[in-house]
Q: What sequence folds into this?
């Protein structure tokens, strides 16, 4: 059986909250708009950029590819790049225990991929900075696929790995991740250290939720063994 674990990036592997908030505030200011509340910005992390700014504008009548939506998206990209150039990657640290978790899963023979709302350029940059590139056999990004929760990203990773949906675990911090897993017929493993509350992850179909990265290897082992029912919804011994 091919075991495939696909990670989200922002809010799951790296904590990008500060740079995302700063870039989005700058994007709205560049378009002479009042910036959204920080909590509203955190809620859209995980969506592809046009969908994210569209949601923040809160007007379903606005087309995704016209007017203020692409202008805001471009302003966000420019602000994000400026922040990265001026501060490096210090605003996107790995969450505690992530690197050890990736090493442990690799040693156990688990194949790993990423499905993220980042662009491929942004994802490759962050992986190279943290020295994580060699852990992943599949990288799926928002500039290659429809936005989450559409299953295209996850389905592409499954094909590349030669796995099956029912043997694939998607690890993420948002309801969009859990819905993507559900839409692809995969297993959704939520993490509580990201940007959506555990109850939101559960409502979106998370099979189980981990509270620390160090729990992930044992959670994954339990899911593949078919014994998630004996585990706490939030933690694993």
A:
């Amino acid at each position: 059986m091919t075991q495939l674990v696909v990670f989200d990036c922002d809010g799951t592997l790296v904590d990008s909250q500060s740079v995302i908030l700063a870039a989005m505030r700058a994007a709205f200011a560049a378009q002479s708009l009042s910036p959204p509340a920080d909590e509203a910005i955190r809620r859209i992390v995980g969506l592809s950029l046009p969908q994210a700014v569209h949601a923040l504008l809160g007007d379903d009548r606005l087309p995704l590819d016209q007017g203020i939506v692409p202008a805001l998206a471009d302003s966000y990209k420019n602000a994000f790049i400026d922040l990265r150039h001026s501060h490096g990657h210090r605003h996107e640290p790995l969450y505690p225990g992530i690197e050890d978790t990736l090493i442990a899963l690799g040693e156990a023979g688990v194949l790993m991929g990423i499905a993220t709302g980042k662009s491929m350029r942004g994802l490759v940059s962050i992986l190279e900075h943290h020295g994580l590139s060699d852990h992943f056999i599949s990288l799926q990004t928002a500039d290659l696929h429809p936005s989450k929760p559409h299953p295209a990203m996850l389905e592409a990773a499954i094909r590349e790995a030669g796995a099956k949906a029912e043997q694939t675990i998607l690890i993420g911090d948002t309801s969009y991740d859990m819905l993507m897993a559900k839409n692809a017929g995969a297993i959704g493993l939520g993490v509580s250290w990201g940007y959506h509350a555990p109850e939101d992850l559960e409502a979106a179909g998370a099979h189980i939720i981990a509270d620390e990265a160090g729990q992930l290897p044992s959670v994954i082992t339990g899911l593949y063994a078919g014994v998630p029912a004996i585990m706490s919804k939030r933690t694993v011994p």
